[in-house]
Design goal:
Layout lengths: L6 H16 L5 H10 L8 E7 L2 E23 L4 E6 L6 E2 L4 E5 L2 H20 L17 H25 L5 H48 L1 E3 L4 E6 L6 E2 L4 E18 H4 L7 E6 L2 E17 L4 E8 L11 E18 L4 E3 L2 E8 L2 E6 L1 E6 L2 E6 L6 E3 L11 E4 L1
Parallel strand pairs: 1-20
Antiparallel strand pairs: 1-19, 2-9, 2-13, 3-5, 3-8, 4-7, 5-6, 7-9, 9-12, 10-11, 10-13, 11-12, 13-18, 14-15, 15-16, 17-18
């Protein structure tokens, strides 16, 4: 078949091959070769922002969260039964010590006082004392009943002596002497009975005095007063309601100072002492309040291995509220030198913590041990030296990469 092809076809094929060889465009293989032979330009150092690690003196603290509580909470109740005629407070009312909270109807109690006063006057009169006064001790020999008994006894004693002399002279019968002796015994008994009656009347006088004091105390107890400065957290009775003895009227809380209850982990509780300073903040308030540790629990809670402590927080202006959630730092030691770096500079991988530092224009990984975190900074316990240039945002930087530090 080849032999049979026209010669014109062979001539056309030769022309096409020659044209391809003379064109200025290289082939694919030539382009690849050329590209491998082209030299690469050196990459420029990458700019990064750094932070100089500075050693600062900060106090050692224990951080915990807890709740504020009132220093005292008391449910005020009436001591005597009666109808409530005045309720002077309501929810949120601030009261001072001795301020009137409520009143019970006093009519019945005033009458009891008058009745007790009359009984006391009667008892004083029976002892021969003035109706009013504070003197209650009397000499029994000066009372009328004892003087009368003494006179009868003296008369009986004289009659017995005369009878005895007459009997010795056989001027009277022995029966008359026996009668005189019996009369003397009766007189002596009446005298002693009179003395006992005076003592009984003195005891009655003391009883009447106590009954009067009790009646007056009950009259005083019809007025319910505040036992301390505080605020009313609940009102449990209304005017017109009949209250039994002990019935609650209002709940009062002492808001200055407040108690801050904090659970401290067992491993950090050994450094907590009474008197240490406490800094705290509450939800919705950026103000830092101060307090001090005043009480430590004698036991560690087995459920969560924590030690409960109580701090006292001044609250004279009633800004803080009992029951509020609080975050607190207990200052357990004085100022110590530590290094703190921004939290964004820390790189954590597979449980290993490290930071990137710039040394002689290149990135170097430094493994570190961290401590407490505060806001956006982290305490570096070991691995980093003061003055090191720490990369703020490591990103995808690799060790050995050339960089230019920017502050």
């Amino acid at each position: 078949m080849i032999c049979r092809m026209p010669r014109a076809w062979f001539a056309l094929l030769a022309v096409l091959v020659a044209a391809a060889g003379c064109s200025g465009e290289p082939t694919a293989s030539a382009s690849a070769a050329a590209s491998t032979e082209k030299p690469t330009a050196a990459s420029a150092p990458r700019p990064v922002k750094v932070f100089q690690a500075v050693e600062a003196r900060v106090p050692r603290t224990v951080t915990s969260t807890g709740a504020l509580a009132a220093d005292d909470t008391v449910v005020l109740g009436v001591k005597v039964p009666g109808r409530l005629v005045e309720q002077a407070v309501d929810l949120g009312t601030r009261v001072r010590k001795g301020q009137v909270i409520a009143r019970i109807d006093q009519t019945d109690y005033r009458l009891r006082v008058e009745q007790a006063e009359a009984a006391l006057q009667q008892a004083r009169a029976r002892l021969g004392l003035a109706l009013t006064g504070t003197d209650e001790q009397v000499d029994p020999e000066k009372t009328s009943i004892v003087r009368q008994a003494r006179a009868v006894l003296d008369e009986a004693r004289l009659a017995r002596e005369r009878s005895a002399k007459l009997l010795e002279q056989n001027l009277i019968a022995r029966a008359q002497d026996d009668t005189a002796q019996a009369n003397l015994g009766v007189a002596e008994a009446r005298y002693h009975d009179a003395l006992e009656e005076v003592r009984n009347r003195q005891a009655t006088l003391t009883q009447r005095r106590s009954e009067l004091e009790l009646a007056r105390q009950q009259l005083t107890d019809t007025v319910l007063v505040s036992p301390f400065d505080g605020a009313v957290s609940a009102r449990q009775a209304a005017v017109g309601e009949y209250l039994a003895a002990g019935a609650p009227v209002a709940t009062l809380v002492r808001t200055h100072p407040l108690r801050l209850r904090l659970p401290v982990p067992e491993r950090e509780a050994t450094g907590v002492r009474v008197g240490q300073a406490v800094r705290l903040t509450v939800e919705g308030d950026t103000t830092a309040y101060q307090g001090r540790v005043v009480r430590l629990s004698p036991i560690v809670q087995e459920q969560n291995r924590t030690l409960m402590i109580e701090a006292e927080v001044p609250n004279a202006n009633a800004v803080l509220k009992p029951g509020a959630f609080a975050r607190a730092d207990i200052v357990t030691e004085g100022s110590q030198p530590v290094i703190r770096v921004p939290a964004a500079s820390l790189v954590t991988f597979a449980g290993v913590e490290k930071v990137l530092v710039v040394r002689q224009g290149k990135i170097v990984e430094v493994r570190v041990t961290t401590g407490r975190r505060a806001n956006d900074t982290i305490e570096i316990v070991a691995g980093l030296k003061p003055g090191e240039s720490v990369v703020l945002q490591p990103g995808n930087l690799a060790p050995g990469q050339a960089v230019t530090a920017e502050r």
